[in-house]
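User: Hi! I have a protein structure encoded as tokens and I'd like to know what sequence might fold into it. I'm fairly new to this, so please keep things simple.
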């Protein structure tokens, strides 16, 4: 694959994840390394994208319309005549470039050396070229992306270092160019028709997308919440454009489902970042076939038993010890299509999502082991010798992997649903699992502290520690609406209305449409206006 060093590549199924979500996950973890994927069409072949600190810096994606010379002319850095003369000079080294070594000099280097271009101008042009090429890659709907972290041998030098592409703007451009309504609907699933609302995190990153004034009107149409169809009516834009903007923000975790359901056991609080609960399909409902459901459940139970028993990668994938990479890949394609949690809703199997997610994570780990030649051969040799693999699937790294970030997001959503239903034990378990995969996520730490407090039989004894934890979260992330709201509830219980009012007001400053914070403020104001009332 041409990846640097001996690092093991993570394999991401683009049909299950989608390139926009993958690029955002790499941005979140400040990924540095290489991503390899297949370019389709007449220039088909494996292409690479080099990342530095979560931003793309170079790609070898083939695009004849995005030549450096053409970009320099379009941006006014060169005249067409200057470009043509430089191109001719590079093709005739025996004349103008007699002092240059036999290796072919790049156009950008030649222009800088001849002082027709500054290094800063070259970096800008290369950034535009890289972004344009990568926009074409968002047309890819399926296949695999191989993600290899670490120092990579990207073809950059002192002239081109610093030409990072704005990842958020790239995602928006790629979605705008290659996502139609059907594709957006397929990837967003049930949220495509559901009410949506903007997350507070958009305030911090809004400028990075470079929205047009018309796009800003679309964002305003989601206040306080709206479906994609409703937002299109409000702002007068086409449903396609609204869907593209909504999908972009959703893929970047800046748009969420606006769940109108409130739970009295948590004070009516709709947890920040939560999405509408998955409707459980009953047997025989919709297109569900009882025989197919029984078959799927039996296979799921078999895999669950294997995971509990510590089955090795060959057993989980259902392939022999002699299986090569092609056989492993074929097995993975079949299993991932069948057990990916996002695929269950379309099969009326949404009530099995939680169990399927745990099995899918184990299958994904097994596939990564068997897809790596060295790890596959080591495991095969160990098993043939009568041994059993130890715990874990391979060396761990301090930073969360792409898979861990995506799993953490999914587990956090499950925790949110359990918290809304008042199932604090289950919510706490899911939040802890999510935090194990993404330890730096402060909202998860706030949610864990609140669940521990709610399930405690002696809340008075735990109140001080919970308050300290929530204040610690706010010290690291002052715009955590969840922590502000939970602090407010603690102060209400302690009959400190003045401090509670300040906390709820802070939560509203971050999440202006947090109805539960508004209700708490209204209740406090009523108490102030009627001091004689209990």
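Assistant: Happy to help. Inverse folding works backwards from shape to sequence: for each of the 534 positions I chose a residue that suits the local structure. Here it is:
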């Amino acid at each position: 694959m041409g990846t640097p060093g001996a690092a093991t590549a993570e394999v991401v199924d683009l049909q299950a994840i989608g390139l926009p979500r993958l690029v955002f996950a790499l941005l979140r973890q400040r990924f540095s390394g290489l991503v390899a994927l297949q370019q389709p069409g007449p220039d088909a072949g494996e292409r690479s994208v080099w990342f530095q600190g979560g931003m793309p810096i170079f790609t070898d994606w083939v695009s004849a319309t995005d030549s450096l010379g053409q970009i320099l002319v379009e941006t006014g850095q060169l005249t067409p005549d200057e470009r043509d003369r430089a191109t001719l000079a590079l093709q005739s080294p025996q004349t103008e470039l007699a002092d240059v070594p036999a290796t072919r000099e790049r156009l950008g280097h030649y222009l800088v050396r001849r002082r027709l271009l500054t290094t800063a101008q070259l970096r800008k042009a290369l950034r535009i070229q890289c972004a344009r090429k990568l926009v074409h890659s968002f047309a890819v709907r399926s296949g695999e992306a191989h993600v290899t972290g670490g120092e990579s041998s990207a073809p950059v030098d002192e002239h081109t270092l610093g030409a990072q592409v704005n990842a958020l703007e790239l995602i928006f451009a790629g979605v705008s160019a290659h996502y139609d309504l059907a594709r957006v609907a397929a990837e967003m699933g049930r949220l495509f028709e559901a009410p949506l609302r903007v997350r507070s995190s958009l305030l911090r990153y809004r400028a990075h997308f470079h929205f047009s004034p018309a796009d800003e009107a679309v964002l305003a149409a989601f206040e306080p919440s709206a479906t994609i169809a409703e937002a299109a009516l409000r702002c007068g834009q086409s449903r396609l454009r609204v869907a593209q903007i909504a999908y972009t923000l959703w893929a970047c975790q800046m748009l969420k489902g606006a769940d109108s359901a409130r739970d009295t056991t948590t004070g009516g609080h709709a947890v920040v970042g939560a999405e509408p609960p998955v409707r459980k399909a009953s047997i025989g409902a919709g297109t569900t076939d009882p025989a197919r459901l029984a078959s799927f459940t039996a296979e799921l139970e078999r895999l669950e038993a294997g995971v509990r028993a510590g089955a090795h990668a060959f057993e989980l994938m259902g392939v022999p010890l002699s299986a090569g990479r092609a056989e492993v890949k074929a097995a993975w394609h079949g299993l991932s299509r069948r057990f990916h949690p996002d695929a269950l809703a379309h099969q009326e199997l949404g009530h099995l999502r939680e169990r399927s997610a745990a099995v899918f994570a184990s299958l994904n780990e097994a596939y990564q082991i068997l897809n790596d030649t060295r790890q596959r051969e080591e495991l095969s040799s160990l098993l043939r010798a009568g041994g059993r693999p130890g715990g874990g699937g391979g060396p761990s790294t301090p930073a969360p992997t792409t898979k861990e970030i995506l799993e953490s997001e999914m587990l956090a959503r499950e925790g949110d649903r359990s918290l809304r239903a008042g199932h604090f034990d289950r919510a706490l378990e899911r939040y802890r699992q999510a935090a194990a995969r993404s330890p730096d996520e402060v909202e998860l730490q706030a949610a864990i502290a609140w669940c521990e407090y709610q399930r405690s039989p002696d809340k008075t004894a735990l109140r001080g520690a919970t308050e300290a934890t929530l204040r610690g979260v706010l010290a690291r992330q002052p715009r955590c609406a969840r922590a502000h709201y939970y602090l407010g509830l603690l102060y209400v219980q302690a009959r400190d209305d003045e401090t509670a009012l300040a906390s709820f007001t802070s939560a509203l400053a971050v999440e202006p449409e947090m109805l539960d914070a508004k209700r708490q403020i209204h209740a406090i104001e009523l108490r102030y206006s009627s001091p004689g009332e209990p």
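A useful reference point when you look it over: The two ends are 71 Å apart (CA to CA). Feel free to ask if any position seems puzzling.
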